[in-house]
Amino acid sequence: MGISRPSRPSRPVLLTASAAAGTLLFTVLTPGGASADPAPRAVVRDQSPLGDADRAARAPESAAARALDDAPVAARTGAERGYPRERRLASVPENPADKSIKLGLTPYHAIAPELNRIQGIGDRVSVEITGRSAGGHDLYLVTVTAPESAREAARQKRMRERIENEPAAAAADKTLKSAYKAPVFINNNIHGNEWEGTDAALKLIEKLARAKDARTRDLLAHHRLYVNVTMNPDGRVAGTRENANGFDLNRDFITGTQPETRAVRRIAIDKQPAVMIDLHGYVNGTLIEPTTPPHGENYEYDLFLKNTYANALGMEKAVNGLGYTEAKDGVLPAVIPFRDQQEGWDDWPPIFTPQYMPFHGAVAAHTIEFPMQVNNEEYDSEPVAELRRRSAVNTDIAGAAMTATLDYARKHRRSLIADQIEVFRRGAAGAPSVEISEETVPGVPGIGPEDVYTTKFPRAYVVPAAGRDQRSATAAARLVDHLLANDVRVRRATKDFRLGGKRYGKGSYLVDMRQPKRGIANVMLADGRDISDKVSTMYDISGWSLGRLWGATVRPVPKGSPAAVPSRAVAAAAGVGYVAPRGDLRLRLDDAREVAALNSLLREGVSVRRLKDGSVLVPGSARRAARAAARKYDVAFSATTARGGEKVRRTRVAAAVTPGELFALREMNFDVVPVSTAVLNDGFDWRRADVLFVSSGLDRADLKPAARERLDAFLAGGGGVVGRGAGGAALNSAAKLLSVTAVEGNGDANGVVRVRNAGGAVAGSGTGYGFVYAPMWFTGLGSGVRVEQAYAGGKPLVSGHWRADSSGAGGPADAAGEASVVSGVSAGGARVVLFGTEPLFRGHPKGVFAQVGRALFAVR
User: Fold this and answer.
1) Cα(246)–Cα(57) distance, integer angstroms
2) d(CA 307, CA 315)
3) Digit-coded pLDDT (tens) for 194-213
4) Closest to 20 measured CA to CA, from 383, 405, 288, 257
5) In degrees rounded to 5, what are phi and psi of residue 724?
6) Comparing C-alpha atoms, which of 637, 731, 624 is closest to residue 675?
7) Phi and psi dihedrals of 351, rounded to 5?
8) Cα angle 118, 324, 217; round to 5
9) Rounded to the nearest 10 degrees, what angle do helices 413-429 and 518-525 cross at?
10) Per the domain annotation, does 437 fall within a domain?
11) Does 606 lie in the same domain as 699?
């Protein structure tokens, strides 16, 4: 037993600190801000263990429940109201422990009183609550604009809807071009310990409320400014990057697991910003997007780059014009990655706010990283006076970026509106993407072949009706609802039909790709691309396909006429919950919701037994409980005459895991107790758990002798183990459980992979796809070790970035055909399952969650 690590290349010296990613930026800055042969930035590993002090571990289950609630994040009103829409915000109890206070910044409890005060200044400022954070804090959205009657507000809404829904007509509408208030969105404090955007925004809002100059009057007469004051109040208060559930919200914009992310998604859809900026820290000099390659292939990138680069130049001028210098203040000149770097800061994955917003019409979108670090170790080690000096500099720079953006929007309002219309027109017309070049994007120097990324959109996607062609009706319904939540238009066939040379049944869902927001539809449903040969490393994930990872069958249709399919538009997926009227019942365990339903039955004391194929038998006498579960979780209980085997028992999980894994376990209704090395050393009572799930935060070598003895006694007494990744493999080796060698692939790798499932209790028939993030595989399998799943032969990577390291090892060719999930029984009798994939990654690959659920039941 052991872990084999292929040799790693040495890293270059890190010269510019960046807390924005919990890592460092590899670049050498010249005095002018341009980079001299920059090396790539390190891949981000943001999946920290829970730990005994982590808020996600201590967060009540209500935080997860709030995030898992699918209800709208804010009340929707029927009649359009005018502006201002003044709202008296409720006071928040004072919290002297708020981490903002030390920096001389605005604590969360002071924001509501400040907004109440500013609303009273004049008639330009309105405040609404768009939802609540995972930790229960209100989320404040401020609108700043010239007063509007209800009639005018309704007219603005009609023009906004026409831009999306009738873009060809909107392009010819002279009244719209002259009268429409182009929306600008400023998002702040998405990372809780990157504070200063909030304070700069409050200053800007008050300044605009009071200003009487002609430029401000012109701005507010022709624009609406939307300001998300703090997207992450949980983290702002606690001084953490993540929210109360331990999620990095700037990684959540495709999955949409967290209420804060869903609130911004609603803003994107309802407000339809033409320009947006997202305020972060800390990169010195101030980093201003657009980015280096690779560029997201589903954008109308020519329109995006044109505006984003031009606005970046204006922000750079404003920031540098403040007069801060390296010698005097420690502030380097601003950096525009597209111009100044070769790679390492990309816009490929749409998980970040500025990479998500373009799919809803933003034609200029930026991450701004102000320069002076005040978080993490600096927060604890620097004198208060120095921290406050740095925060004041950052606030000043954030304000300059905001003001420059508003100035750009004011000067280019008509072209911004025209470009937003063109984004939607291309989608609705099915127009091909425009390849960027210095001819198609004049004014942007340095465009080369390394910047060119386009895609060919299919004519449509079909999510087949339940039956032989659809693997999971529950998964299909969830996927359709998620598409709709992201403003993708979906229709449902009212009759059987033929499209693209294939037959589909009545009830199948159809996504016609000639729609305004085809980009986000393709982002979610396409396989994606293997970009391993395009750049040396990626900042974050590179593959995310919901079509492959969410459990539903999705079929691209290259050609045909979706308009000829008899169908109707849907606002929600049809429910699939069903309970057979007679006999015993079979519940498949192919989906997270089916696992959740099973756990709910076990909590009620229903006697459930295993079936040979990995599904479970529920006695007909429990039909009433099954009906309740079918309604709540939208799952089907079919009739069966099979005889059940071993009884399925309620499973309590001690989990040394990442926040995303904890969230996914709670989504499946497991009783979870977060643990870590420290928790075990403090005397954890193993009577509270039946199974140990280990991925990170638990090192057997660091356990005190008494804690190690208690763990070993738990394992010797029949306690099961599910391990994932290096953490799980290390425990397996240290505790001498399964006789295997765990091989770590290139730690920079991530993406969607093909797998072969062996059937049975753990992987079942599976989806045939999985997700990897620092992939692992198992060799040297001892007697009795079963391969539950293996990487596909040949080329297992479907989409993402996975290449061999500098020694030529650790790539997908090494993993091909090797075991990715194994199981067995240790010499001491402990049942064990080890995963080399990432089946619960950030709450994302929902189609493979059930493999972990099955594994936990299997080792019980």
Assistant:
1) 8
2) 12
3) 999 999 999 999 999 999 99
4) 288
5) -130, 130
6) 731
7) -80, -15
8) 35
9) 50
10) no
11) no
Residue 5 in domain: no
Give phi and psi for 509, each to the nearest 5.
-95, 145
- The answer to whether residues 666 and 672 touch, using CB atoms and an 8 Å cutoff, is yes
Tell me whether the omega of the peptide bond preceding residue 294 falls within 30 degrees of 0, making it cis: yes
Our count of domains for the chain comes to: 4
**By the 8 A CB rule, do 805 and 746 touch?**
yes
- 239 and 204 assigned to the same domain: yes
Q: Which of 573, 566, 591, 588 is nearest to 504 (CA)?
A: 566
216 φ, ψ (degrees, to nearest 5)? -65, -45
Which range of residues forms the domain containing residue 550? Answer: 460-569
DSSP one-letter code for 71 = S
What is the domain-level CATH number for residue 228? 3.40.630.10
Give the integer Cα–Cα distance in Å for 191 and 792: 38
Q: Is residue 45 part of a domain?
A: no
Q: Who's near 581: CB < 8 A, 6+ residues apart?
A: none
Read off the tokens for 415: 């072209």
For residue 662, the surrounding DSSP H or E stretch is: helix 659-667
Reference 236, options 204, 202, 205, 212; nearest CA is 202
Question: For 11-81, where are the E strands, in sequence order?
Answer: 16-18, 23-25
Whether 287 contacts 275, CB under 8 Å: no
Mean pLDDT throughout 599-613? 95
Q: Would the pLDDT of 44 be above 50?
A: no
Task: Please identify, among 429, 449, 473, the residue that sits at the C-terminal boundary of a domain.
Answer: 429
- In this predicted structure, the answer to whether residue 529 has a pLDDT above a threshold of 90 is yes
In 575-626, at which residue ranges do the beta strands (DSSP E only) sit?
Answer: 578-579, 584-587, 608-610, 616-618
In-domain check, residue 515: yes
Residue with the bigger pLDDT between 451 and 79: it is 451
Distance CA 384, CA 545 (A): 46
Distance CA 832, CA 738 (A): 7
Where is 833: in which H helix or E strand? strand 831-835
Please report, for the domain that includes residue 722, its CATH number: 3.40.50.880
DSSP state of 103: G
Interior angle at CA 364, CA 41 and CA 219, nearest 5: 135
722 membership: H or E segment, kind and range:
strand 720-724
pLDDT tens-digit readout, 116-157: 999 999 999 999 999 999 999 999 999 999 999 999 999 999
Active site residues: 422
Residue type, 591: D
Sequence-distant (6+) residues with CB within 8 A of 238 are 55, 99, 192, 244
- Over residues 361-376, the pLDDT tens digits come to 999 999 999 999 999 9
Q: How many helical (H) and strand (E) elements, i.e. helices and strands, does the chain have?
A: 28, 37
Distances (CA, A) of 730 to 52, 354, 438, 743, 769: 20, 38, 52, 11, 25
Considering the domain architecture, whether residues 644 and 661 belong to the same structural domain is answered as no
Asked if residues 464 and 547 have their Cβ atoms less than 8 Å apart, the reply is no
Together in a domain, 482 and 424? no
Contact 654, 689 (CB under 8 A): yes
The CA R_g of the chain, rounded to the nearest whole Å, is: 27
722 and 849 both lie in a single domain? yes
pLDDT tens digits, one per residue of 395-428: 999 999 999 999 999 999 999 999 999 999 999 9
User: Taking a C-beta distance cutoff of 8 angstroms, is the pair 250, 21 a contact?
Assistant: no
The number of residues making up the chain comes to 860
Buried residues in 487-508 as b, exposed as e (16+ CB within 10 A): bbbbbbbeeebebbeeebbebb
Query: Is residue 47 within 8 Å of residue 747, measured between CB atoms?
Result: no
| 257 & 218 share domain | yes
Among 569, 590, 616, give the residue marking a domain's end. 569
Do both 631 and 663 map to the same domain? no
My answer on whether 632 and 702 are in the same domain is: no
Whose CA is closest to 653, among 708, 720, 712? 720
